[in-house]
Write a structure and sequence with these properties.
Layout lengths: L2 H25 L2 E3 L1 H4 L17 E3 L3 H20 L1
Helix pairs in contact: 1-3
Bound molecules: zinc ion.
Length: about 80
């Protein structure tokens, strides 16, 4: 009867991976724009993806900030009580 333990540790690992990823994109939400590299021929035109900043948000960064905001709000509401 080790099935539950295996599932539990697998779930814990998945959760840890999600949390790790969330923390990673939260601390480093931006990366170098991939689309700029592909636009060497069309010099002078602004990149549609990063709008010339050469930085784009990592996938999940928006969600990580959204979750953080809701956690902060939950904490503040709890503290005000
Ligand atoms: Zn770009």
């Amino acid at each position: 009867m080790h099935d539950i333990e295996v599932i539990a540790s697998a779930a814990a690992l998945v959760l840890l991976a999600i949390l790790g990823r969330g923390l990673y994109v939260f601390i480093w939400p931006y990366r170098e724009c991939r689309w700029c590299r592909n636009q060497h021929r069309r010099r002078g035109r602004r990149c549609w993806r990063c709008k010339g900043t050469r930085l784009t948000r990592r996938w999940g960064a928006w969600h990580a900030h959204k979750i953080k905001d809701s956690l902060v709000r939950a904490w503040q509401e709890r503290g005000a009580d």
